[in-house]
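#help-structures
NK: newbie question, is this the right format to request a structure? protein is LacI family transcriptional regulator
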Amino acid sequence: MAGKLRMDEISAITGYSVSTVSRVLSGKSYTSEKAREAIVDCARRLGVLQEMVSGRLLINDIVVFAPGRTFTPRGDHFYHEVTRGIAEACASHDVHISYCPLEEQRADVKLFLEKAAAKNISAIIIIGTDDQAIFSLAASLGKPCVLINSRDKDMRLDAVSPDHRAIGFSAMQHLFEQGHRRVLTVTCLRRETLFLRLEGIKDAYRHFHMPFNAQQDLIVIEAYSSQDTEIALNHWLDTHPRDQWPDVILPGGKGIITGVQNALLSRGLRIPEDISLMTTDLASRLEGSPEMPITGFAVPCRELGYEAIQLIQNRLNRPQSSIYNLLLQGKLVDRGTVANATRHAAREEIRNAFS
């Protein structure tokens, strides 16, 4: 009865019928934008939104921007899982989701404005973009906007990301605690998030009082290319004596992982019998995939999509609340590709004895 009275009150204040008020507060799409804005604003002032079930989504259309490879066959598995999370979070609501490609750098501003500023769009999600000009435009549109795996340096937009620095630290911590000391990190640094992960790895070196030598402990690839990775790793192995080869290789990204595996296979090196393999970039829902049967830290990809929708809802309910920067933690998935360091040490002693 109390809920009916509040709808009667909103109806009286706004001049719209109780049935129209009910449709708007139920998240139904067949009401005018003018009516929706008036009813939601009145409900917010009366405190009704705070009393509503948190799962109710008061928007009709969301546009999701992501790098173009997200939408290609066998493209970016990480971002594909994120979009699945968004779709699942909206599945029980009357919400239409449209998708649009938008690259990480020098994004198409005209295309972004054409899609994001459309009258029917109620909220915006931007995945994996570093273009600050896009963030400025998004902040100017007056619509809820959430970044996924990106950061607005001017702190105007809500964001949710994996805690890249913590994931990098935890991965290296796991290896150090297993007794490993020779670890070769292979990464691409084309995005700020990847720098954060590398900084977490360096934090672990400092924490364990281990020196980090970029010439010895790091390979940087220009892009997530398995071919470029294979060439770079083979060059590194060719230019370092065997006794300086790593006990563990720590690649980030599916293409880099494949390149590392190919290089080791071509040399007859077994995983983990000869060199262990671990990654900081398992997509959490794909960790059991035959394509990624390696130990690593699973990134909560689909959960990023769920949390983005919750941030949109929070922004609708509390438009003046502080800007959120939500960080999700990774989880260690042990798939048997990291040997204990004592096994490596024993093999080295045997090898040296017969050399």
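mod (FA): yep, format's fine, and the tokens are attached above. Residues 278 and 295 are 5 Å apart (CA to CA).
NK: thank you!
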